[in-house]
Design brief:
The complex is a heterodimer of chains A (504) and B (233).
Chain A: H1 10-33, H2 41-75, H3 81-93, H4 96-107, H5 112-119, H6 130-154, H7 158-167, H8 171-196, H9 200-205, H10 214-223, H11 228-251, H12 274-302, H13 308-338, H14 343-348, H15 355-366, H16 372-413, H17 418-429, H18 431-447, H19 451-455, H20 463-472, H21 476-503
Chain B: E1 2-11, E2 14-22, E3 26-31, H1 38-46, E4 53-58, E5 61-62, E6 73-76, H2 88-93, H3 103-115, H4 131-145, E7 149-153, H5 161-176, E8 181-185, H6 189-195, E9 198-203, E10 206-207, E11 211-212, H7 213-218, H8 222-228
Parallel strand pairs in B: 2-10, 3-8, 3-9, 6-7, 7-8
Antiparallel strand pairs in B: 1-2, 1-4, 4-5, 9-10, 9-11
Helix pairs in contact in B: 3-4, 4-5
Classes of the chains: A mainly alpha (504), B alpha/beta (233).
């Protein structure tokens, strides 16, 4: 009664029911269709093994590298620090297929590294296979891990460092090791969970018996062999895997990667060597910036080679992104305002699901009635909205809570309820968060290469899928142009929504 | 006018009892040590804290179960009395309607703003006003709401002594003169003497019945004497 937080209304209940239905329905369909785990076969078992192995290695490498980088960033101030911190946020809205293209330009057959090796007369490296999959996952998740651990460092009050310096106490054992013990498990679990459902990276860099993830195997079963039973069995394996790790995630404390205030430098007395910190920052910066720079350089060169079909796909992707953003924000707002205590639980569920699993389920459910091509775009819109929801909700819910805490009583007193309250209190107060969340949702949807690959024919291609097909048909100039276009559109969508939110 | 009937409030381990009538008209101060329950009492009357037992009646009407906006009670909090994202005129206009205001209603908003000394400032955001002007704008909303009971939970506490006295004067001049009953929490017994006809003393889990301010302070009961210390007398 005193506050509205925790109150349940019909919009929140409806949103929760929709989210549950879209997750549970396909999973039930998959479970009904799946055969026993014995039918998985050596290829399926290999995919399961590789999925767990690559996710574990990716998580360990990302977090292990993130610790020294975060420490260096926490205690050093240098020109370009702000820019580097901004870039650490970029991979989140960088489409995976574009990031993969950037890595190909650096580490691929004709990339910078191999050109250099050849000039020195050394044998070339191959980015295809398990090593490439892990490289891409580290590239995509290192920034996330750095941000989480950096926030951990900055959460240590400056007074403690001062006290430790005064007492001549070991900072590492007294302050840093306990902080890492708290933050690192969560970072490991989160990166592991993200890599478990990796599809686009495996699609481009993986494949074959040595580097096929369960998600990729599902795609191949549906798309190449039209073996829905096998796809369903694999999907069920993926569900069990994700659910298991998501349960683990509930047990460990998941650190925050969205938090603000990373511009603060932790004051240190007599801390480590400057040279070593500089080396870590330079190495991490180069590793992150080089592929992004290559996307721009090669993209500009290839921009005029963009075929007409790619422009059409871009327009289609924009429409998909806008539609899924609208749905995602509607769900997030309904859950945040009137979803009650369970809102955050329901809104986080999509993290434990995967696009390919739900896509397979929808395929099984809807195929008897509709052709996959007809379903491709609506299903993509729904899935993109669903998978952006956890991020959107984590951004919007605190803002709504804050506005209620500050002005809820005043609104109660002036009799604001229902739509008037939404219009006069919630929307204006949460505008910044809503814009930021909508920007993320739009960028994520724009760059998504997941369920669309399962359904789409030529006439329902999105831009990421079109770019993947250009890559696959060795039209690398056109693919480079498409990559730059995709990157530009994703960033522009994010910037437009984010700015619009801040303006309000 | 306002009747607290065997009212019993419970919040965690904290309890508060009140059982009295507040007569019509005038300004009643609510005094007592901090943490004594002054704010809780106000929130219960406004409908933010449901009573464990007992009833609140206003002009004979039982308020039990009514939402804060439907009780005929206006209230000013310590802060956040204006929506910072709405113009001053819109904030004041919320006292009339949450929808679009009619031309006649806009004229009323302007005239009320003029009465509190904010003529021509309706288009500004609260952030563009000084602290004293923000208090006046909030007062304008209460004025236009036209509800019989007004609760002031230290809305002027952040103002300096001069401005505080000025606002108390405005409250008397605008609200009390218009026949509203005002309950005003204050930490300053001097303020209470200066502006309040009656005073309620809240301490030790009990809100005493209102007494005439001068009589109360001239011969304070033991708990009030301890609270006042050497301040008065």
């Amino acid at each position: 009664m005193a506050g509205r937080a925790g109150r349940i209304g019909w919009p929140g209940a409806l949103a929760a029911a929709l989210v549950l239905a879209v997750i549970v329905g396909p999973i039930v369909a998959v479970a009904m269709r799946a055969e026993g785990l014995g039918t998985l076969g050596p290829a399926g078992r290999g995919a399961l093994r590789f999925t767990i192995w690559q996710a574990a290695v990716s998580a360990l490498v990302s977090v292990a590298l993130a610790i020294p980088v975060a420490r260096a960033l926490a205690r050093r101030r240098f020109p370009g620090r702000g820019l580097l911190l901004t870039l650490l946020g970029a991979p989140f809205i960088l489409p995976v297929i574009v990031a993969t293209f950037g890595l190909l330009a650096v580490f691929g057959r004709a990339g910078l590294v191999n050109t250099g090796l050849a000039a020195l007369g050394l044998p070339s490296l191959s980015i295809y296979g398990p090593g490439g999959v892990i490289l891409a996952h580290v590239f995509l998740n290192l920034p996330l891990a750095v941000r989480m651990i950096l926030l951990g460092w900055q959460a240590i009050p400056a007074e403690r460092f001062r006290l430790a310096a005064l007492l001549n106490a070991p900072v590492w054992r007294l302050l840093e090791a306990p902080m890492l013990a708290r933050v690192v498990p969560g970072a490991l679990v989160l990166v592991f969970l993200i890599c478990l459902t990796s599809f686009a990276v495996a699609l481009v860099l993986g494949g074959g018996p040595r580097a096929t993830t369960v998600e990729l195997a599902i795609y191949q079963a549906v798309r190449f062999d039209y073996a829905l039973d096998r796809a369903a069995t694999l999907a069920l394996v993926q569900v069990a895997l994700s659910a298991g790790v998501a349960a683990l995630a509930v047990l460990v404390h998941l650190p925050d990667a969205m938090g603000a205030g990373m511009d603060r430098v932790v004051p240190r007395w007599g801390a480590g060597t400057r040279a070593l910190d500089a080396l870590w920052i330079a190495a991490a910066g180069l590793f992150l910036i080089l592929p992004m720079a290559m996307i721009v350089i090669e993209g500009v060169a290839g921009f005029s080679d963009i075929p007409p079909g790619t422009w059409v796909a871009a327009a289609r992707s924009l429409a998909v992104a806008l539609a899924s953003t609208a749905i995602c924000m509607g769900l997030a707002l309904a859950l945040a305002v009137s979803g009650g205590r369970w809102a955050i639980v329901v809104g986080t569920l999509p993290v434990a699901a995967s696009a390919l699993v739900l896509g397979t389920g929808l395929y099984i459910l809807l195929f008897p009635w509709l052709r996959p091509q007809v379903l491709a775009l609506p299903v993509t819109v729904a899935m993109n909205a669903l998978f952006a929801l956890p991020f959107a909700l984590r951004i919007v819910a605190p803002a709504v809570e804050r506005s209620e805490a500050q002005f809820g009583r005043l609104a109660d007193l002036t009799g604001l309820s229902g739509r008037a309250r939404l219009r006069l209190l919630t929307l204006p107060r949460a505008a910044g968060a809503l814009g930021f969340a909508a920007g993320l949702a739009a960028a994520l949807s724009m760059g998504d290469l997941g369920v669309i690959a399962l359904f789409a024919g030529q006439e329902t291609e999105t831009l990421p899928l079109n770019m993947y097909r250009l890559l696959g048909s060795y039209r690398s100039d056109a693919a480079a142009g498409a990559a730059l276009l995709l990157l530009g559109l994703s960033l522009a969508l994010f910037a437009v929504f984010d700015r619009a939110g801040r303006r309000c | 006018m306002l009747r607290l009937e065997a009212l019993h409030l419970r919040q965690g381990g904290f309890t508060l009892e009140a059982d009295w009538d507040l007569p019509d008209g005038g300004l009643c101060a609510v005094i007592g040590p901090s943490g004594g329950g002054k704010s809780t009492l106000m929130q219960a009357i406004a409908g933010f804290v449901p009573p464990a037992s007992g009833r609140v009646l206003l002009e004979g009407r039982d308020l039990t179960g009514l939402a804060p906006g439907a009780r005929g009670v206006s209230m000013l909090f310590q802060d956040n009395n204006l929506f910072p994202h709405l113009s001053v005129a819109r904030n004041v206009g919320l006292g009339l309607s949450s929808g679009r205001l009619s031309a006649a209603q806009r004229v009323r908003v302007d005239s009320v703003l003029a009465r509190v000394g904010l003529e021509g400032m309706g288009a500004r955001r609260p952030g563009e006003l000084s602290g004293g002007q923000q208090s006046r704008a909030a007062l304008a909303r209460v004025l236009i709401e036209d509800r019989p009971l007004v609760l002031l939970d230290e809305p002027f506490a952040a103002l300096g002594p001069g401005l505080r006295a000025e606002m108390a004067g405005l409250v008397r001049e605008m609200l009390v003169a218009a026949g509203r009953v005002v309950l005003m929490v204050t930490h300053e017994p001097r303020d209470a003497i200066a502006v309040a006809d009656m005073a309620v003393f809240v301490a030790d889990g009990c809100a005493e019945a209102p007494m005439e301010t001068r009589a109360l302070l001239a011969d304070p009961p033991e708990a009030l004497r301890r609270y006042l210390g050497g301040v008065v007398g």
